[in-house]
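Quick start: read one record
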Amino acid sequence: MPANRRVRATFTGVVPLRGEGGSGVLLSFRPVYARIDVERIDDFAYLGPDLELPAVDGLGKVFRILRAARIAVPGKPMDWVDRERELTAFLERAVGTNLLLQLRPRSRMRFTAWTESGVETVEDVIDVLEAPDAYLVIRRRGRYPVRIPRSSVVRQHTECERWYEVLDIERA
């Protein structure tokens, strides 16, 4: 498992988001030093609609940014569940705040095979084994492997998506 990293970053923006599954804010950070291989780190803070564990985690991220920027928010923190527009107004005042982020590198692999009968995409891939007669796609979480005969494959592509998950936010 890759090690967590502590990176100094500047809070650069916030976008409120609301959908069928709830509401939240998209938080953006820019690393201060070139110790990390990305120019921008995005993290979603889920805010509800109900007071549940992911909403408490999202509120914690938001309030740690506001505390680092020395911005006081009236009322109790739990009163701010599912109020992304109001929290966005407070977070916009915190843009430019220097923070210390604890990050975990994350990745997700996908295997795509174009066959004579169509396109087959396999998500959450651990490894792709090439046998003489087939591609054997090993998947995460103990799910059964997918076997794709090589004779029907016209083209294949394996791609990896990488990002950083924000675990903790502190004042720099």
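The helical segments are 53-68, 84-93.
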